[in-house]
Design goal:
alpha/beta; 10 strands; two-stranded antiparallel ribbon; 12 helices; 37% helix
Length: 323
């Protein structure tokens, strides 16, 4: 919220509790016009938080500010386990392994509908526009595929770097597949755990040393995601580095690696026929039926994106009925 206010925009903080007790924080940039204005809900990707949307600063650089200048009522979501959504009604994220037993499936089932409903309630609207990036698109696709009523609340889904299948992933991240079962065994024995949280000391060190690590950071991001820093604003590099990563759970990363291994957009695989049967009524984890989605969808795919690969998104486009 400080970044938003520093840029000269009003910012409201709204909390909502999911049915399973996670307390999520949303940042709202309300319309300065009194009349009801279009509501735009924006959902960040994996290992990020709401700050990623405004990290470029004002002056036509950040989409939330552009939308706010147009009179839109902008809401920035934060899923469980990210920097601004670490609270829970009974669990402590800093000490409870149970808190971290979740993946993007739980976000799609609990977090997304809770935040969207909150935004609609506060703004007195019946539907909104959804803008998602990476994991933010994945959880939206999953919810829309499973919940017919949710489709009525989404006027249109704008999917930036859409992720639904990772069959053609070219990033070295795909090597995480080899850690699937050992990591799952460890999680089963010792419990859930947090991965890459945003810590104050790491933020300070990163910000202070940004000039020295810029080159190494560029190489690392290119290695993992195919990101090229020439596509970013150089003057905002300290902001980028001091606000990432945003943290998530080990189980969430494992769920992504399951998608790499299967080449499908599927629910969490318990690696047990019995547990899958108990959870889903079948011995294997079910695949999401994307053809069920009725809301209009717009896909924005980068030709150099090693995570949301163009080939995978071509497959996605053939499954969507209202593209």
């Amino acid at each position: 919220p400080e970044m938003i206010r520093h840029a000269g925009y009003p910012c409201e903080v709204h909390n909502v509790q999911t049915k399973d007790g996670y307390i999520l924080t949303m940042h709202r940039i309300p319309s300065r016009l009194r009349l009801k204005r279009p509501v735009v809900f924006m959902q960040h990707g994996i290992l990020a938080d709401s700050s990623c949307w405004v990290a470029n600063g004002a002056g036509g650089r950040s989409l939330p500010y552009i939308l706010a200048d147009m009179g839109c009522d902008v809401w920035l979501g934060n899923v469980r386990g990210s920097t601004y959504s670490r609270a829970h009604s009974t669990l402590d994220a800093d000490v409870s392994e149970k808190y971290w037993r979740f993946s993007w499936q739980h976000m799609s089932e609990q977090d997304i509908p809770s935040m969207v409903n909150k935004a609609l309630h506060v703004s007195s609207q019946r539907s909104l526009y959804y803008v998602g990036h990476s994991q933010g698109t994945l959880v939206a696709f999953a919810r829309l595929a499973e919940d017919p009523e949710f489709n009525n609340k989404i006027k249109m889904l704008f999917a930036l770097g859409p992720v639904t299948r990772l069959a053609n992933l070219t990033s070295p991240i795909k090597s995480l597949v080899y850690l699937n079962r050992p990591a799952f065994l460890g999680m089963s024995m010792f419990g859930g755990t947090e991965v890459l949280p945003k810590k104050a000391i790491s933020q300070w060190i990163t910000a202070k040393l940004h000039n020295q690590i810029a080159y190494q950071g560029n190489n690392m991001m290119m290695y993992l995601c195919g990101v090229h820093l020439e596509h970013y604003y150089k003057d905002r590099l300290p902001v980028y580095l001091s606000h990432t990563p945003g943290g998530t759970s080990l189980q969430n990363l494992l769920h992504f690696s399951q998608m790499v291994e299967s080449g499908k957009m599927q629910k969490w695989d318990h690696w047990s026929a019995k547990e899958n049967l108990d959870a889903y009524g079948q011995e294997t984890s079910p695949e999401y039926e994307l053809s069920n989605i009725k809301s209009p969808v717009a896909l924005f795919v980068g030709s150099l994106d090693q995570l949301a690969h163009p080939v995978d998104n071509k497959v996605l486009s053939k499954k969507l009925r209202n593209l």
